[in-house]
Amino acid sequence: MVDDAASGDAATIRRRANALALAVLAQLAERPMHPYEIARTLKDRRKDESVRLNYGSLYSVITALVRDGLIEPAGTEQDGNRPQRTVYRLTGAGRTEVDDWMRALLGAPVKEYPQFMAALSFLPLLAPDDVADLLRTRLVALRVKVRRIEDDLEDLEHTDGARGETSELAVAGSRYELAILRAELAYADVLVRRIADGTLGGIEAWRSAVR
Question: Where on the tree of life does the source sit, at the highest rank (predicted)?
Fold first, then answer.
């Protein structure tokens, strides 16, 4: 019994390290689907902006979810001369898992390790002027990303507004990404300015160390 519990805990940890598994469970919570429909729906709803999606990984995740008893085959579908596709549905255990997983993600902040934060931790490896130049390049890219998301959100609002629908709930993830990018943009902009004008604490020692 102890071994079974430990094995189950390990499977849960592995599964929850992959947000694509959550995306699959979320789609099947709506209705049974085959893998291609899952992928198409995620792309149509732009969920691939928040979850890394490729077909190889998708099929691996589906296999693992079946093995763990969270989803199960519900039949097959065939469109014309195309090969049959297996349709999957959520099991009772799957519904419990997606509920528990969502509660854990929303209710408790988890320590993450962004690569940019790692780079900021080791700034003294490069000369201050080089860092400032690199950050300026990053700022350009960040502004492009921010503008793209703003344009996408505006397009969605106009489209949904014309249909009398609200898109705010559907784009919560995009709005979060936009807020994070704006915060990073503001921080990097200030950092560049303080490096350039010499007001960053410790910059003289930094300059001396890399000469």
Answer: Bacteria
* Residue 25: burial class (beta carbons within 10 Å; 0-12, 13-18, 19+): buried
What are the strands, taking DSSP E only, across 56-199?
71-77, 85-90
Task: For the domain made up of 2-107, give the CATH fold.
Answer: Arc Repressor Mutant, subunit A (1.10.10)
Q: What is the pTM of this model?
A: 0.81
Return d(Cα 139, Cα 193) in angstroms, integer: 12
pLDDT bin (cut points 50, 70, 90) of residue 165 is low
Alpha-carbon span 100 to 94, nearest angstrom? 10
pLDDT of 200 > 90? The answer is: yes
Provide the residue ranges of all domains of the chain, joining segments of one domain with +.
2-107, 115-209
**Whats the size of the chain, residue-wise?**
211
Q: Quick one: CA torsion of 56, 58, 59, 61, rounded to 10 degrees?
A: 120
Residue 86, helix vs strand vs coil: strand
The contacts of residue 32 (CB under 8 Å, 6+ apart) are 74, 75, 87, 88, 89
Instruction: For residues 142 and 95, give the distance between their C-alpha atoms in angstroms, rounded to a whole number.
Output: 38
